[in-house]
Design brief:
It is built from 5 helices and 3 strands; from the N terminus they run H-E-E-H-E-H-H-H. The chain is mainly α and about 120 residues long.
């Protein structure tokens, strides 16, 4: 139990995990286990609607983490993830933390489902 608490604290204090990868909201409490970044609760709801074949949403405070998941989160993070997923994104496309659900949903669908902003959409 102590190991899990330490791991959660390390994740949430690591600079690459202090803001939501999708809207920039501070202190995100949710994560995508397969995409390797933290997100706010509002964006996590949209990620859940994508399906687990695209994003596996977990709570940073309630769920337990395997050593493998911790390694993924430590090695990717929001900055590195966005270098891939937002490589060709116009800056005005990114929603702000105050964005409504429709704006978030459109952006997140474009980003992960439609792969609209990556450099090589065949990936």
């Amino acid at each position: 139990a102590g190991h899990c608490r330490r791991a959660r604290r390390q994740l949430r204090t690591n600079p690459v995990h202090t803001i939501c990868a999708d809207c920039g909201a501070e202190n995100p409490e949710w994560l995508s286990a397969n995409l390797g970044f933290m997100m706010c609760i509002e964006c996590s709801g949209v990620h859940r609607s994508l399906g687990t074949h695209i994003s596996k949403v977990r709570s940073a405070t309630l769920d337990t983490f395997s050593p493998g998941l911790l390694a993924v989160l430590r090695s990717i993070g929001g900055v590195r993830s966005n270098e891939f997923w937002e490589a060709c994104m116009p800056s005005e496309a990114k929603p702000r933390p105050t964005a409504d659900r429709d704006t978030r949903q459109r952006f997140i669908m474009n980003k992960y489902k439609d792969k609209l902003f990556i450099a090589d959409p065949s990936m």
